[in-house]
Amino acid sequence: MDDLLADFLTETSESLAELDTALVKLERTPNDEETLSLIFRMVHTIKGTCGFLGLSRLERVAHAAENVLGRVRDKVLKVTPENITTILAALDCIKQIVAALAATAHEPTGDDTILIAALDAAAEGRVLTAAKAPAVVAAPASAPAAPPAIAPPAIAATTVADLPITPEPISAPAATPPMPEPVAESAGPDTPAADAQIGPQTIRVGVDVLEDLMTLVSELVLTRNQLLQLARMHEAQSDETSGFTVPLQRLSHITSDLQEGVMKTRMQPIGNAWQKLPRLVRDLARDVDKRIELVMRGAETELDRQVLELIKDPLTHMVRNSGDHGLEKAEARRAAGKPETGRITLNAYHEGGHIIIEVADDGAGLHIDRIRAKILSKGLASDGELAAMSGADIQRFIFHAGFSTAAQVTAVSGRGVGMDVVKTNIEKIGGTIDLKSEAGRGTTFTIKIPLTLAIVSALIVEAGGERFAIPQISVVELVRARLSADGQDSTTPVVEHIQGTPVLRLRDQLLPLVNLTDLLALSSSKLTSASPGHAEHSVHVVVAQVGSALLGIIVDRVFDTEEIVVKPVAPILRHITMFSGNTILGDGSVIMILDPNGIARATGVAGSSGGDRGRDSRDAALPSTRSYSNTAMLLFRAGGTDPKAVPLGLVARLEDLPRDKIETSAGQPVTQYRGRLMPLVPFSGAINPDAERYAVLVFTDGDGNQERCMGLLVDEIIDVVEDHLNIELSGDRPGLLGTAVIAGRATDVIDIGYWLTQASQDWFRRSDRQAGKGGNFRAHILVVEDSDFFRQLLVPTLSAAGYRVTAAADASEALRLREAGVMFDAVVSDIEMPGIDGHALVRQLRAAGAWAQLPMIALTSHTSPDRIDAARNAGFTDYVAKFEREALLASLEQCLAAVSGAGPGATPAGGRRLASAA
Amino acid sequence: MSANVLDRVATPAADEGGDDNATFVTLTVADQLCGIPVLGVRDILGAQVITRIPLASREIAGSLNLRGRIVTAIDLRRRLGLADAAAGVERMSVVAEQGGELYALLVDQVSEVMTLPASSFENNPPTLPPQWSEFSAGIYRLRDRLLVVLDVARLLSLGPTSPGRA
Questions:
Q1: Which of A219, A466, A576 has the CB atom closest to B52's CB atom?
Q2: Is it the case that residue A112 has pLDDT exceeding 50?
C-alpha cells in the first residue's frame, strides 16, 4: 500500500469516528454552527482527498453528503433527524468502502445510486423514506455499529434489513478482473470488523508519550548498568556466581531490546523532511527562471524524530539557497559549457553513529571576491586579515551572522538571516556543518549530525581528579605527548611552550593546546605529584574538532568510550558554556559532558592560526584555525622593552638557536637550516654576543628548491594572541609598518618586507619618502597576487600607507570584481600567476570595461630590460620589483597623482619608475 | 540511602495540620534551627557522593544521582554566607523542586517534621543580618528556641553572578 493511501486511511478513520459523534451532537443542537462547520469541513476533506487519490466511488458519496451539509450550512435545509440519518447512512457507506480499501488497497465496486439519490433528495428538501444504505463488500457487521445507537430505530432497521436483498456486488468480479481475489477475501464474513476499521497497521501516538518512554528507557538503561556493576563487584568479592547473574543478564538483554525498540519508534526516514522539497524547488525554479533538477538519495536513511524536526528548516533553507544563489541561469550555464538544467543533490547516509547529509549544487560556486567585498563592507575583518585567509576560510564567512551574498534581496532568499541560523541550529543539536566550493563546479554543504540526541557515544577522560565526558563526534584522535623533551622515546611528540602557552607539533602542524585541569580551575595536584617514572611525564591530548579548527585538550587519563544519556544541566549552571550537559555513568556517578565548542570559545584558542610553514595558502593543507574577525599575532621583544608583533600566519617556524649554530658568511650571520644556509637578520641591528641561545622567527616563501627563507633574530618570544589588527599609527621608522593596539598594549607591527630585503642580496636602498598620505583621499587599490605570502605582505604595507586595499588571488578573481562593478583607483598585479598571467590580465583590462584607463603597476621578481618592455607593451603603467615597498609606494603615488591631475586616461607624468635592483 | 524520616513522621504531623498551622521539615545549619515547608520537600538524603562542578558558583556543591535523576546540590552554609562545614563531617540534604528541576540543599542535620501554629509566627526582625533576611520568610517562636523559615525559591535562584573563577 502506498504511503499516501495509508495516510488517507488513517486520517479518514479518525475523521469518521469524530463525524459520528459530531453528527449526533448536531442532531441534538441543530443550531450549533461550530459543529456543523466542523462536519462540513471533514466531509469536504474526505471528498477532496478521494478525488486526489482517484477513489471515484468514495468521492461521489462524499460529494452527495457534502451537498446536503452545504445546504444545511447555508440555512436552506433544516437539521432534521431524517437528514442526519441520511448523512449517517452515507458515512456508513464511506466507512465500508474505507474498510475494504484498508484490506485490499483497492476501492471496492458497488452501486451507491440509491444512497446518492436519497442524499440528493435530502439536499432538495424531499425525504425519500426508502433511503437505504447500499450493501458494500465489507463486513456488514461493522456497518450498523454506530447508527442504531442514534438513528431512529425504524430507519436503522431498514438499513440493516436491506443489506441482504441488495444485489451482491462481489458477484460481478468480471468487471474488475485484476483483483477478484482480494475482494473475495475481504468479503469473507469472518473478516474481523475491528481489523477493517483500524485500517493500516499504524496508530498515532502523541509525541510526548514517546518522549516519556524514551526518558524512562534511558533511566532503565542507567539502572541496569548500575545493577550490572554491583553484580560484578559482588562476584569479584565473593568469588562465586550469585543467583542474580542469570536474571540480570536477561534483564540486560531485554533492556537493550527495549531501548532499541523505543529508539525505533522515534526513528523516521529523512525523506519525511524532504517531502516538501520537490514542490519547493519546482516553484523556486519558476520564480527565479532557472531550470533545476532535484536529486534525492538516501531518503530512507533513518534518524531520530527530534533531530529530524530540528534539521527540517535548515535543510529547506539550504536547498532554497542552492537554487537561488548557487545555480546559474540557463544562459550562463550554457556559456560555461554545462547542461542547462542545474542540479541540486541531497544525499544522506549513515557514518559511524552519525548521519551525513550533503546538499550539493553544480552551480557557479561561491564568489570569493563578493564574499570578501561583503566582509569588508560589513567590517567583519580587515584587508590584512582577509589577505591572510585561505579561500576556504573566506567562504566560511557565509556562516557569519548577517551575511548574505545575494547581490539583491530576492523574495526567496538573501535577507541575511541565512546560513548563520542554519549553522546555529545544527550546532545546537551537536552537529557540524562545513562547505566545499569550487569556482564553476558548484558548492557542497556537508552536515554531520548525531543519530539521536538522547544517547551519544562519549569518551570518558579524567583531569584534576574529576571525570568528564567528551562527545565522540568532536574527537578526532588521541595523542600521547611528553611534557619534557628529555627521555629516550623520541617518537612521542613533546608539548612545547610559547611563553607559557602550550602547543604541540602534530604532523607538521602546530596544534594549540589547553590544559583541562587549568581551564576548569581544578587542582592539578595529581599531575605535579606524579613520580618522575610515572608514565614518563606523559599526558594525553584529545584532539577535538571545533568548527573547522583543531584543538588539543590535555587530560590526565583517558578511559573508555561509553554510551551516555545526555541530560541538560540545571538552569543555574547553564551559564557555564564549557558543559553541554551531564550524565550518569554505569557506576552511578554523575559526570559533566564537555562542550569542545564552549572550550574553544572560552579560551579563544579556536582563533589562533596554525602557522604551517607559511604555506597555509593551500586550502586543503590544513583546517585553518583562524577566527573570522581576529588575526593571530606573534608577540616578541627585540631591540627594546616594547612588544613587537607580526601576523603569526607569516611566521613559518619558531626556532631556538644555540650560539654555536650561528656562523658568518660574507659578513652576514647565517645558520645551517634544513640543509641550506639561512640568512639571519638581528632585529636590533647586531647580535648580542652574550646570549647563549637566540629566538629566531623563520620566514619562508616558495616551494622545494625555490624556497627561500630568512631568520629574524629577536630577544624573546612573548606570546601568541588573537586580536583585531588595526594599524593606527604608521611611523617612518624602518622595519615597522606602524603601531596597533594588541592585547591592550600599543605594539609595533613589523614590516616583514623590510626585513626580507635586509636578508636578501638585492637589498634596495630605501628612499626617504612616504607615499599615499596626502589629503583625505584614500585611493582604493586592487592587488592581484597569487602568492598568499606576498598578499599578506602587500596588503598591510599598502594599508599602512593609507590606501584602501582589496586583494585578489588570481586574474580571474580580478576580472570577476570588474564584472561585479567594483571600482578601483589603481591595480597592482603580479606577472607570473597560474591561469591568466599578469600580461594577459592587463591586456584584457585595457581592452574594454570600466578599468581600461586605470594605472596598472606590474609587480615581479624579474627586472630585466626585456621583461620591462614586455610589461609595458602589455599595458602596464609601471613596473616594480616585488620586495621594494618604497618603490611601489612611490610609483602608486605618482600614478595616482598623474591621474587626478590630468584626468583619466593620462599616463603618469613621472614616467616609469624602474626598480633599481640589479 | 534516602532516609525515611519523612515516612516516619509525616503522617502524624499531617493530621495535626489545621488551617492555621503549617508543617515544616526542620534542619540545622551552623547550629541554627531552620524549617522548610514540608510540601516543598521531595526527599531527604543521607550523605551522598557529590560530583564537583568546575567553574560553578561556590555555593554549588556539585551534582548527585538520585535514583537516575541528576540533582544539583547547593551548600546551604555557603549560600547563607556561613563558615564551611568541618572537613569529613557527613551532611544530609533536603531535596526540593523548582521549575521541574531537583535541587539538594546540603545541611548539617535534618531533625524532624513539626507542625507549628500560626500564632507563634513572627516576621523577620529588622536587625536580622542581610544574608539571613534575604532567605528568611519569617520566624517561629518555639518553646526553647527560634526557627527560621527558609524561602526555598530564593535559595535556589542562583544566577551566574558569583562564578567560582573570575
A1: A466
A2: yes
